[in-house]
Amino acid sequence: MTGAPIAEKAEYVRAAIADGRSGEHHCHWPGCDRRVPPASWGCREHWYKLPQRLRSKIWRAFRPGQEQSKTPSADYVAAAREVQDWIAANQTHQASLF
Length: 98
Ligand SMILES: [Zn+2]
What we know:
Blueprint: H1 6-18, H2 44-47, H3 52-61, H4 66-69, H5 74-90
Helix pairs in contact: 3-5
The protein binds zinc ion.
């Protein structure tokens, strides 16, 4: 399913959410402890704070099922790290909130 179109992946994540397959996963935004479905990167609010290019990157690297197997692809790990770097570079002024 590596080459699955993004729309298909979005559908997969929606189905996982509808299924109530949410668990012990927190939003990846630093300091945010909202619970989100394992198949999604983070809560809606923070996801949409990310630039489009990073969101596309996450989508491209995401492989349906990775949240079950707990073995995301190297691409996904790299994309997730890039997102953390972006947040660190762009949100430092909010650090005092936490
Ligand atoms: Zn969040």
